[in-house]
Amino acid sequence: MTVRVEMGKDTGGAPVSMDLEELLATRLLVQGNSGSGKSHLLRRLLEQCAGQVQQVVIDPEGDFVTLSDRYGHIAIEASEHSERDVARFAARIREHRASVVLSLEGLEAEGQMKCAAAFLNGLFDAPREHWYPALVVVDEAQLFAPAGGGEVAEDVRRASLSAMTNLMCRGRKRGLAGVIATQRLAKLAKNVAAEASNFLMGRTFLDIDMARAADLLGMERRQAEAIRDLQRGHFLALGPAVARRPVAIEIGAVETSARSSSPKLTPLPQAAAEDMKGLLLAPAEPEWTPPTPAPVPTQMPSERLIEALARSTPAPVDEVPVDPEEAAGRIADVLRDIVVDPDSTYRSPSVLYQDFLVRCRMVGLARPPLDLSGFVRRLSAARAGIHGDPDADWAQALDAARALPDDMLGPFLLVARAAREGLPCPSDTELAATYGTSSLGRVRRLLTYIESKELFVTRVDLAGKRSITIPRLGWTTQPSEVG
């Protein structure tokens, strides 16, 4: 299937389009001085092919996060997460084919390079079964693939350059198509720039950059002056995905806009010099207090972001509705399989949630009606041996346990089940398995915490056997050994 993306019009007013499949195979390099329209060009490309291919944007200035409102991209603020989290997100992104914008705004140059390297390596190292085609757009690529050393540590520079080289040199076989934009070709590592087969060259003034741009476009040196005369938003294009001979393009309009914009002239205040001097040199107010800063928008925590990435996968067209009772049975079976798996005990809830979603798809449930919080509650109940809907069968016990976090429901329900059925009190080892830990000391601290909430009353008899009463329910376990 051939998909052509209209980028703008040539000097004669005819539309100029780009072959998306060819672009995925041959990559793209965009060059132009600040203000030449590079970001506008990238935005046009992303908007025109939205919905046709997965898009991953590495955004140093946070300008492309506005794509989320119109096209559903998931915006990740890198400054709110660790490098390890960012690498995990990259793996989830490839698995679930989510279109995302990684905003590096708020990070210093070295932090941006570290984060970009971790993210690109996470995309690159995804398992073979997740090698779906994706456009990987890197704005200001000279920051991440510098031609020479700079003020950052050498190991950081090497890691970032290696990740960019992998993207451009080896990414094609993994489905990753690099689209990189730079202000200056002279500042971009040559082995990164050389792997692109498509070029869009905007206005530039330095002779060294004009000469390199002319070489890439197959133009003679004396023709390079034309690059200096390009207007803002006009580019010379060449490559198998767009044109076999250099063609001038005026990039078309876009539907979204960046959070920042070019400075505009505004009228200066019309105040007399003496009045202005009085304003500037006026004494401070005796009780002046600084203004209250604007509230910082709450960022999406890592676990919620993982859930959003997982649920961003579009539902299959041929998905068959499942009867609610049958769906509930399938979900119970999936949870039972997860609990039986010995490796699941010490995995984090977010990782197990991904496993849960994959298993649900395998049994025909593309959209299981459980978010991350609901999954943790059901998993806790399943670990306690309760495989039905705990909200229906154990409403009384869950109401008593409202003061507890979701991850403590497993030990609480295990004790509640033993107490209701008159069974021996669960041992510390059994409680540890439901809590996802191997530390018996942590289990004892957990019991102390639950007692502090007046949910448990623990008794140890002279034989050293323990029994636990749940006073709000009037249930008591039989005595049993503690260990």
From TrEMBL:
Residues 24-214 form the AAA+ ATPase domain. It comes from the Bacteria. It holds the Pfam family DUF87. GO terms for molecular function: ATP binding. Gene3D superfamilies: P-loop containing nucleotide triphosphate hydrolases. SUPFAM superfamilies: P-loop containing nucleoside triphosphate hydrolases (SSF52540). The keyword Transcription does not apply. Keywords: ATP-binding, Nucleotide-binding. PANTHER family: HELICASE MJ1565-RELATED. This is ATP-binding protein.
